[in-house]
Amino acid sequence: MEDPRILMVVREPEARSAYEQILDRIGVSYHTAGDFNEALRMTVQSAYNGLLIDILTLVRCSKEEKSIAYDCINFYPTLRIKWDSRQQSITLGPQENSPAAADTDAALARFVQDRCGSFSARCLRRFARKDSYLSLLLSSSTALCAAAPLKTFTVNISQGGAFVHTTHPFAKGDRVRLRFPELSGEAAIEAGVCWCIPWGRCRSIPGIGVMFDQGMSPRQVEWLK
Q1: pLDDT at residue 99 greater than cutoff 50
Q2: Going by C-beta distance under 8 Å and a sequence separation of 6 or more, which residues neighbour residue 144?
Q3: Residues 36/72, Cβ–Cβ less than 8 Å
Q4: Radius of gyration for the alpha carbons in the chain, expressed in angstroms and rounded
C-alpha cells in the first residue's frame, strides 16, 4: 500500500517553510498549493488522500475561493493548521486541540496515518466549475421544498455538479432536484448534496454543493457542456 499523499494549501512563504520542515521531519509525501484556485487544479489532475490547510490562507481568501475550499474540506480528510510567527510555533485547528495533540509532530503523523491512510486517494472532480448565474427551481423530499420549489440560482456549475445559492438548511447526503427554465420540457436533474455553507456561518454565499446523478438526457448533457 502506498504512503498517503497530502496536499497542503498555504500562501505565506514563512508559514509554508515551517510546515514543510515538519512534514519532511515526519516523512510525509506532500505537494503544496499557494491558493485554492491552484489547489483545485491540482486535485482535478492528481489524486490525494488528505489536505492540510493554513488557517490564515482560508480566512483571507476570496468568496470564490471559499467555495472551492468547502468543496475540498467536505471531500477530503482535512486538518487546519496555523503558523505563529511571533512564537515560531505551529498550532492545530480546534478539532485537534486536545492534550493528546500537544506534540505537533505526533498529531500530524497521527492525522496522516489514521485519517488519510484509511481514505483512498482520489481526485476532487473531473470537471472544473465555471462561475455562471443560472436561474433554477430547487426541490427535495422535505415538506418545504416539496410543497413549493425554491426559486434560486447557481453560483458556479460544471458538467458534474454545481454550487447553488440557498438559505434553506439542507444537509450533506440530502437528495435534490434541479429544474432549469432554459431546459423546458426536460425532467429535473437529480443530484446529491455534497456539502453546505449555512446562512450566517461565515463571510461567504450560503448554499449547497451538489453532484449530478448519471442518466441525464442527451440534451441536458450538451447544455451543461
Answers
A1: no
A2: 150, 168
A3: yes
A4: 19
Q: List 197's β-bridge partners, or say none.
A: 207
- H or E element, residue 33: strand 29-33
State how far the alpha carbon of 211 is from the alpha carbons of 17, 79, 176, in Å.
36, 24, 10
HSE-CB at 196 with a 13 A cutoff on CA atoms is 17
Considering 45-59, 84-98, 130-144, 210-224, the range whose residues carry the highest mean pLDDT is 45-59
- CA 111/CA 53 separation, integer angstroms: 13
The answer to whether 52 touches 79, Cβ cutoff 8 Å, is yes
> What value does the mean pLDDT of the chain take?
85
Length of the chain: 225
- Per the listing, cell 482560508 goes with 58
Side-by-side strand order, sheet with 78-84: 29-33, 5-9, 50-54, 78-84, 89-92
Report whether 68 contacts 76 (CB < 8 A).
Answer: no
User: DSSP characters for 75-105?
Assistant: TS-EEEEEEETTTTEEEE-GGG-SGGGSSHH
CA gap 121, 129 in Å, rounded: 21
**Can you tell me the distance from the alpha carbon of 173 to that of 113, in angstroms, rounded to the nearest whole number?**
27
Whether the model pTM is above 0.70? no
Backbone angles phi and psi of 6, in degrees to 5: -110, 140
Cα distance between residue 148 and residue 171, in whole Å:
19
- Distance between CA atoms of 225 and 220, rounded to whole angstroms? 9
Contact 192, 174 (CB under 8 A): yes
